[in-house]
What does this fold into?
Amino acid sequence: MAVSSGSTLPVVQVRSGLQPSPDALFRAQISFALKRLITMSRFRYSQVNVFSADPVSGHDASVEVRAFVGVGGYEDPVTGSLNASLAQWLINDGLVEPTYIASQGTILERTGRVHLRQFSDEIWVGGQVIEVIRGEIDL
It folds into this structure.
């Protein structure tokens, strides 16, 4: 599946058999060959995204998300644009409520929480951030 909030992102739902599986999600690794294939594809994806719509026991989140970026193996701890795109699909298909929390960064020991809410045909994204860089770009 590919989702978009401006840029198209490939997304894979991780399952164990027929059931969503956060355990399988935490074990997921993206092979170098797959990353290379994706970055060389005609779509020029720069990341591979995986999620499980099965809540992790003891967490407040309905969805666990992971984003693998580029061929170097970097994992983004929290990605608002990915979660906004994913929310369009999950809400429209009834996999989550119109207001929910997504968890990202758990495997990196970064307890990121992305708050998502559908208002009419828009998805609103919120949460706390740790600012690591600030600047301006003149175009």
